[in-house]
Amino acid sequence: MKHLVKLGVVCLARTTFDYKAAEKLYENITENLKKTENAEIIAIPGLVIEPEDAHAAALKLAGNDIDGLVIISGTFHLGHLALELEKILHKPILLWGLPELEYNGGKIRLNSVCGVNLNASNLYKSGVRNYHVNVGSSIDNDWVDALRIAAALRNAHIGLLGYRAKGFFNLGVYDLNVYSKMGLLIDHYELTEVWNREVPEEALSARLRQLKEIFETDELSNEQIIRVAELSVKLNSFMDDNKLSAAAIRCWPEFAAEFGISPCAAMSVLQSEGRIIACEGDIEGAISMLAHSAAGAETPYLFDFSQVDFSEDSALLWHCGVAPCNLWDGRCSRSLSTYFAGGKGVTADFVLKDGNISVVRFDSAGTEYRIFITTGKVIPMEKELKGTYMKTRFEKPVKDVLQTVVDNGIAHHASVVYGDFIRPFEIFAKIMKWKIIR
Asked: Which UniProt keywords apply (predicted)?
């Protein structure tokens, strides 16, 4: 489900135009907005015509803690109005222009688009650049989804379990920079806080049955299967009890050495159930996955940009075995194996399903954030490797994609989902004044 978003809505007008028609259009728009998925609509009744009306509307919306402000130019209007609203609210703005009505006696009736132009110019020249423009009879849902991303991150609570993986300096973050840029809080926990949790017998039995229904487990010992089931229960309850929106785990080397298995297989199962869990202590990977989920993408996961084939123009998006098990291609065997960490790896092994994909990485360089985005199409392949993987052809030649990644120092993990989830991130980046790398 998409993340909840709260939208304030106003309609501006001037009585020298057909404000009665604009008022009727506004009533219809507010009724339709109420049908927006997982959105709370706080609409100011009637038209905002005078600066005093705009000031009163802003004060009312300020008390509702909105995520974004929809300013509809019902007709052309005074330039004061949008500025009075922004002066108090300081929220991302959608400037919405309505299609012109049929002329009535040779007179333009709404002149709505000119009102949008006026507002955009006033805001821009006053230094306010977090606005987006929409002209049409319905709201731009990509803008709404961009607000969902911001709201999800602002309200998120991420747990760092252990630390980043050894040597992965590029995955480290400065916690207060993350808070400054996104309002997101990170808490640190020791791995033992997960390992030492109690496991109710009923929950363990349910997870054991689940593992044997999903995976072929012939390669594992009974003790390893039990360990995967135990860890699934422990991680799940740990995230519940600590109210974590997402977790980033130092998954090696301590897990295999001290707990007895790596967490990959348990992560595969939990991610298929909607948990956001990042490998190798990758906080920004977890943030990328949260952002995908907020926009409505299902079961995001992190991959390594692992192999490239310039002649075939493809890349292998691989990881050691953590992809959500519900993304299996339905053709190959879906198994658990112990191919690394001296037989203690315990990873999921399968090829991911076909389809169109979107990729995103929230990535910091110093104190600045940028967003890497791209799209691609999965190429069917046989199961040839351990781990979880897909072969992909990108929107641009793979050589260019790789060059873009390395030239900009983008980290070696990114979040991938099925479907088209690009435009909301472009709008989000504009709102945040972040660079898009594509």
From this structure: Carbohydrate metabolism, Isomerase
pLDDT in tens, 277-333: 999 999 999 999 999 999 999 999 999 999 999 999 999 999 989 999 999 999 999
In one letter, which amino acid is 79? G
pLDDT, tens only, 88-111: 999 999 999 999 999 988 889 999
Closest C-alpha among 312, 301, 398 to residue 350? 301
Domain 5-139 top-level CATH class: alpha beta
Q: Where are the domains of the chain?
A: 5-139, 152-437
* DSSP sequence for 260-279: SS-SHHHHHHHHHTT--EEG
Measured N-to-C along each axis, helices 201-214 and 222-241 cross at an angle, to the nearest 10 degrees, of 120
The number of residues making up the chain comes to: 438
CB contact at 8 A, 244 and 185: no
How many whole angstroms separate alpha carbon 120 and alpha carbon 93?
Answer: 10
CA distance 284 to 394: 22
Question: DSSP letter string over 323-353?
Answer: S-GGGB-SSS--EEE--STTTT--EEEEEBP
Strands (E), 112-269: 131-135, 157-161, 185-189, 246-249
CB contact at 8 A, 32 and 138: yes
**This prediction's pTM:** 0.96
The CATH code belonging to domain 152-437 is 3.40.275.10
Report phi then psi at 18, rounded to 5. Answer: -80, 75
Q: φ and ψ at 357, to 5 degrees? A: -125, 155
252's tokens: 């090696």
- Give the separation between CA 394 and CA 283, rounded to whole angstroms: 25
